[in-house]
Amino acid sequence: MEEKSASVFVIDTSALTQAVRSYYAHDICPGFWDCLAYHVQEGRIVIVDKVKKEIVDGTGPPQDWLRDDIDRTHIASTKEESVAILYGQLINWVQGNPQFMEAAKAEFASVADGWVIAYAKSEGLAVVSQETYAAEIRKRVPIPNVCRQFDIPHYDLFQLLRTLGARFDWTTP
Q1: What is 9-164's CATH topology?
Q2: Distance between CA atoms of 29 and 43, rounded to whole angstroms?
Q3: Could you read off the pLDDT of 137-160 as tens digits, one per residue?
Q4: How many CB atoms lie within 10 A of CB 97?
Q5: Which of 130, 124, 131, 129 is nearest to 150 (CA)?
Q6: Using alpha carbons only, how large is the chain's radius of gyration in Å?
């Protein structure tokens, strides 16, 4: 496994939505969400406006957590010119890549993924998602594939939590 040393992370929508549906449901692991909120407030985890929009437009616990625990001043804007330029480069690479099917290219352009990656690249940050690198994939454009192409560190949630030093200790009820 490659050595990673990022200190600030931009988190993708899927990492949050998958977390609440699996290992980190609010009713069994509220400490996970408290940990994320703490690190957002401390500036170690970044949530960009496009991710916020995807979550707020949805329903359920990630929406509640984002609304209740994350102050809007902690949401990063993707409206900077440097982010838009990098986003354009990412989209051009995806659109020009014959590996990906047209539907995969269209989906990538319609979700927050490219904005998350562009923001991370523009700020020298790492990306967090639950997606995995897939060299031969055609039906979608995985975040780690784009990160690798543009030399951006990619972490999954477990790697993020270990890097942050998070621990969710059980206590006797």
Answers
A1: Rossmann fold (3.40.50)
A2: 22
A3: 999 999 999 999 999 999 999 999
A4: 14
A5: 124
A6: 16
